[in-house]
Design a protein that fits this description.
122 residues; 3-stranded mixed beta sheet; 5 helices; two-stranded antiparallel sheet; 5 strands
């Protein structure tokens, strides 16, 4: 799995137009990624709205092993309103991957309110 994440990070850096100067927020002060273009954020938002991708919460250790951690405190809850920017570590998955590898209760918690959590430019 670690290698797959590293490969994804490398591929995202090479996707023309994906890398940029913006943060990709989940809502308000909760940041998913930094260094994304407006077009990249818009594409991610459209894919999530259509149900083609899912943002799955992960341990920051996944990013630490890759040396790709954001320099922000870590958000504990994705739906909480924070006063300052915090990082909510996620990976991208397809809905089929989420369904295959997640217990039903946990899956319902992860997908609750998804339409309200479309990434937008900061």
């Amino acid at each position: 799995m670690r290698q797959a994440i590293l490969d994804l990070i490398e591929r995202c850096q090479r996707i023309e137009g994906f890398a940029g100067k913006h943060s990709c927020p989940l809502n308000g002060q909760v940041v998913l990624w930094e260094g994304v273009s407006d077009a990249g954020i818009e594409a991610l938002g459209r894919l999530q709205t259509r149900g083609q991708i899912a943002f799955v919460a992960r341990s920051p250790l996944v990013y630490l092993t890759d040396g790709q951690m954001l320099r922000l405190p870590i958000a504990k809850r994705r739906n909480h309103t924070y006063k300052r920017p915090l990082w909510y570590p996620v990976t991208l998955s397809t809905p089929a991957q989420v369904a295959a590898h997640t217990a039903p209760l946990r899956q319902s918690r992860r997908t609750q309110g998804t339409p309200n959590h479309v990434p937008r430019c900061a």
